[in-house]
Design goal:
The structure is a homotetramer. With about 375 residues, chain A is of the alpha+beta class. The first copy, chain A, is built from eight helices and 18 strands.
């Protein structure tokens, strides 16, 4: 089947089915000496479970991570880091009624069309629980990046068409995003969205939404020309998250209806010239330390980081499992009436926030190492 | 520097600077026996040059391809296919005035920040001419795909905020897209856009736009779970094209403000059950041959093709080289006034159309081969 | 640090330090439906521990494998297979006396020269215990191969210059190799070698040896031209085993002093022509089903399997940890007298046998899948 | 078909059939600023053609290289370097008599068994001419390595069982190896071998031989643990050369019959402690600068370079094309009598010498770049 590996130098392979014994990941290529512990993983894993009586009737598993290798006395050894979380609340019986029907909006039928069988026990590898391995690996990538002063933050910027204020807008508050279960960085917007979500839940329906992400502290120069571009890699990374349908960097789709004189970001001197002292980041000698007056580019030009914040948004479709009645087909091709029961979120965004961060951190860690190798 | 290779089984490496001796590509992994000739490449290369008095003051190079290896008597040998196009109209002198300033919206400064130098002769590898190797490789991928009945078509669906009718809408005509230099599939819209482009050109400005792409004839089952998803691979592929800023599959960003009951595509029986006869595509025995009533998913669910048309759009920012005056910084960090002269398009979309097709064809060819290997 | 991943389609990543919490592997790309269980792993792991009062004072850990994912009801799911073995007998204290000296024949100093530190607790990833993950992964590869009738067998063919009879020679008996702790396929030779080993142990010394490997049932056609050759891949695979210093295919070094008329293997008809019925293996239509009268090639021509048994030998240097006094250097560069204590084997070959098999099985499984993808 | 790409960071893809329009390579990942020109390639290509009335009736093509991209004003640009050599002396007719028979010792039948067809025009990609692209790429790798003081030299150390003196032995002279067409580093031995070769040629037979290689100036620390070992990578690299059957590092097969006390190389202080001044190569602070009294390891321990010369030998089988009569099979499975006419060498070693150097240089260049990325 393949496809569970990611990255070139800082690599990760995730494993685990939603209803198997355990899930986790192996990170290969993380340098030695990075402070990292199970507590770092636990913190990120808990962010996957917004809980709090919020929009998601969460599976209440503790998701207790165990580091099996690669870390000794609180620091990475440079060897592969294996992380495991045991599944404790498998209830495969929940899904028995679904084994002969193809749920609309799910990969049920394509999985059978591809592999000739399907693990109906809650999605197997296409379950949201697969992201647990990604988030654990992302915790290691974040730990590595923090040594370079790089931070990655994501939040829910819209649900069901209701937008939250964004960076630079009045009321935007990332701390608030960590406090409310929706991960919305604005309390009043969060409350409005919560009401819509409750209404949708009552109707047996679900909502799409948008997750925004910003990474700060990047040096200029991350990303390779042509096929290995920073934005190309990030696009693959975030579109590999279930339910993600679109990604947009900087002005993105808005740039498509704009004009060059409005979109071009103007470069201005930030500090001095490298080599003459005063450059704020490592630059080859003779290169001036610049920044840009605006950031329509979203921190990436020609596929290479500009040193400005990396900014992008990811669109997620509504949760496909809804309790409203839907018509679908079963294994004999018959029309079947379906109303999906069980614990399901209304909107995937709050849970997707740490996954978007994890994938972004993995790409940045990989590029930071690749960059070291390729510099003249 | 790296980053000029793409793909896993059906792979391509492109080479060539915009002002060096030649550009081209080497395709490794294309199976033997595929009908392919220089004429196939020539046709695609000519589509990169919309010409015709249209929006783009094109470089008038003939772009004559030569197949150096891998093809014998009109068929691929299975060996690496090397394709070369000599540069004939290099005029590096055109760019001498730009060698000490950083053009807004270009990768000039990030390139220097990364590599310590810059090839100011028209962009080097970040020039649009690099896509010539991609289009040549895409011609081979298309030839391979056509043996499976798979076609890939792209067109300009919007420029400067003016939208063209799309598939299923009145007046949509892909043949028209090949006739007009804008690659817009609707004559009246093309004429409206042309007027806007002429106005922008007169003002020394440029326009963004959107390219849409549709691939038909895909079997269900292309794409690998988790990180190797069809849409994730395509996103990386198209965002590696210069000036691309966003990609959206199916309902995409629109899905983010919608609800599950409206977004879920309903599966219905198309033909019979595989193994019982009547399946319209290769399916494992016992799996019904389904299709979907709608295609909000854009032909991909859980990262795997559904057999419905693959549909996505790519947003391109406005051409960064504009003749209007802009302020920028130079190598000493001084403020400089800049008005870029020379032959530049107003909107990149018409030239991007065959590149989007090429990248899509390369991803599909690769997945078709990967799929054969991984099937149980 | 990287480097713990192996393979293209059927891939494995191993993890675990000799004195950390656990060791294991994740296999990604194994097709679904392969019968596989912990018992298959246990059998192979027990072969790593020749025991029996034999040449090796083995660490007596039970090496109990646990499958964490990818297997359900005795069959692979097609998803990543994670396998873990907990370390139970860590005694890091054993190695404290060695933390400031560089053991001759070990990677102690080069590891420090590369990484700036060293895990002196018994070797970390350069310990023989790392091969546990390989052997577990090899068990899955063997299970996959057995569905195609492919078997992989290795044995100790020489120790300290004493050669065992080989295939086709009188007395050669692979069952005997499984009975004696030296894995020598000839009882009398095993007894002779055992005496030499006991003498060397008494002298505080160690012995080199040769492991031979034979894989039967391969179809012709495995391996890719140029860089992806079957023998090139196998060479990398087996030389990645600690203490391996050389590999030789078929007549190997002997061929270097021979002549063409003696080395060329003569092809003869084995069965009929493919497509006319009678071919004993899948062949393109019109290709005769051949075999070779001799097998100087060792089953590989031009890097592609011939359908004859794949035969190669691997030379292992003597175990570097010896209790005889040696002079070496310490961290201050001083000359130090060293006599390594503790439980050490005299010859690595018996333990290397299942590792050579595992690496061979992993290469063959990968090529079998690659072959399916690339065939015209 | 695939398999024509090699390397991770410093990568090469070769292209070209022996009788197609051109052969060559694309190098992706070579850093910018490396002095490199067509003259560097020409020098290496001429070493592939020992000529001089010597053992090989060489094809007399001039092999004139053209750099198509990636080099400007005598230095690499960091962009892909494409190199092309046109075929000028194709005489496909030479091979028509062979199109229905399978030559013993060649990949004729396995190629058909794999691909369903065969390019009988002199071998296609399995021809020795394919190595032209490798040697051209190796020239770039050597140019890159020379900036680090690393040199790679290979020579013919044995033909038909006649050994030349080796490094450290009386009469060994690498300059002599460049003077005589056999690439034997000892004039008298070369003359003896020449006589044997003439005798074999008269008998219509051929000879095997051994190529030895030594790389000097390597820093300690090249190579990755577990699967990415220096010797594992080199083994794959050199066994990808046609007719190579075995590779042996340092004492190699001889170590297999030796004992630990004789094989362990003793580390001794070479200079001071890194950080205290006096280390002769870049080492992490606090690590002593060591060397080894002997080099049985061949410059690699635990898969990582020790800083001692890297030393290995490669065994080549006798040239398979011989003019003596042989029995073989044809496409109908009939027994056929065969006597191969045409221009064929007696021993491949002289031509293999620059190819072994090229593959070694490519591995070392790749590891040097990888090493920069992975260091803590």
């Amino acid at each position: 089947m393949g496809g569970s590996g990611f990255g070139t130098i800082f690599t990760v392979t995730t494993f685990g089915e939603s209803h198997g014994p355990a899930l986790g990941c192996v990170i290969d290529g993380c340098p030695a000496g990075v402070p990292f512990s199970e507590e770092d993983i636990r913190r990120e894993l808990s962010r996957r479970r917004p809980g709090g009586g919020g929009p998601a009737t969460t599976r209440s598993e503790p998701d207790e991570p165990e580091i099996l290798s690669g870390v000794f006395e609180g620091k990475t050894l440079g060897t592969p880091i294996a992380i495991m979380v045991r599944n404790t609340a498998q209830r495969p019986g929940d899904y028995d009624s679904l084994k002969d029907v193809y749920r609309p909006g799910h990969a049920d039928w394509v999985w059978e069309a591809k592999y000739g069988f399907r693990d109906h026990r809650g999605g197997g590898r296409s379950s949201g629980r697969e992201t647990l391995g990604r988030v654990a690996a992302g915790a290691a990538a974040k730990a590595f990046l923090s040594g370079f002063g790089i931070t990655v933050r994501a939040w829910t910027s819209a649900v069901a068409g209701i937008d939250s204020p964004g960076p630079g807008e009045s009321g935007f508050d990332l701390d608030e995003a960590e406090r409310n279960p929706l991960r919305v960085p604005h309390r009043e917007t969060a409350e409005r969205i919560l009401k819509v979500i409750e209404k949708l839940r009552a109707e047996g329906d679900s909502a799409g939404g948008i997750v925004s992400c910003s990474a700060a502290g990047l040096p200029p120069g991350l990303g390779d020309p042509v096929f290995g571009k920073l934005d190309a890699r990030l696009a693959a990374a975030v579109l590999s998250i279930g339910a993600a349908k679109a990604v947009s960097f900087g002005a993105g789709f808005a740039a498509a209806s704009s004009r060059g004189s409005l979109q071009n970001d103007r470069p201005v001197l930030k500090n001095g010239i490298a080599g003459d002292g005063g450059a704020s980041c490592p630059l080859p000698p003779g290169v001036p330390d610049l920044e840009y007056e605006t950031n329509n580019a979203g921190g990436v030009l020609g596929g290479i980081s500009t040193g400005m914040p990396l900014e992008f948004t990811v669109a997620f479709k509504p949760i496909a499992s809804i309790s409203r009645h839907q018509e679908t087909a079963d294994r004999e091709g018959n029309v079947r009436d379906l109303a999906i029961q069980g614990r399901h979120d209304v909107c995937v965004c709050p849970r997707a926030v740490p996954v978007v961060e994890a994938m972004t951190a993995l790409v940045l860690a990989d590029l930071l190492l690749l960059n070291r190798s390729g510099r003249t």
